Amino acid sequence: MKGRTHLAFAFFLSMYLTWLYEWPLLSVLVVLLGSLLPDIDDHRSILGKKVFPLSFVLKLFGHRGFFHSLLFIALLWLGLAYVGYEFFGTLLALGYVSHLLLDGFTPMGVRPFFPFDWKVRGPFPTGSWVEPFLFFGFVLGGLLCFILAL
């Protein structure tokens, strides 16, 4: 899926769960960041463009490899929990897992249990006809959740 669709899905999830947040705006931003994090190894992605030199180094792991796995987010969460930021680690993980879920609907799929080869794949290529419908549905759903939370 494209970066904007990942952001829209993370926006929907974060708006749906706003009642959990102590700091709503910061929490939503952390979920949005988490939704872009798996593509940090792709210099063409939204986040990869921001950390351009680093994305080339991370590419050595292979796209949709280590950075598209539950292992990476578990290690990141443990690191954040160790220094006392488990709530933000959980928000980051929410966005991160939302990214993996959407990428699991593409033919390229994801290997959530990297380094094991088991893959989750779907029928919808990145940028296919289904993606604009998902994007607008997630944005409208997020806005509706926001309005209902007021």
Low-confidence stretches: none
Whole-number total of structural domains? 1
- Counted beta strands: 0
- How many helical stretches? 7
Class by alpha and beta content: mainly alpha
Strand content: under 5%
Quaternary organisation: single chain
The N- and C-terminal alpha carbons lie at a distance of 31 Å
Order of helices and strands: HHHHHHH
Calculate the mean pLDDT score and round it.
Answer: 89
Approximate helicity band: 55-70%
Shape: globular
Largest sheet: none
Radius of gyration: 15 Å
What order do the helices and strands come in, and which of them pair?
Layout: H1 3-16, H2 24-36, H3 46-50, H4 52-58, H5 70-82, H6 86-103, H7 130-149
Helix pairs in contact: 1-2, 1-6, 1-7, 2-6, 5-6
Summarize the structure.
60% of the residues lie in helices and 0% in strands. The protein is built from 7 helices and no strands.
Structural overview:
With 150 residues, this protein is mainly alpha-helical. It has one domain (3-149). The protein is built from seven helices and no strands. The chain has helices at 3-16, 24-36, 46-50, 52-58, 70-82, 86-103, 130-149. The chain starts with a helix and ends with a helix.
Q: What tags apply to this protein structure?
A:
mainly alpha, 150 residues, single chain, 7 helices
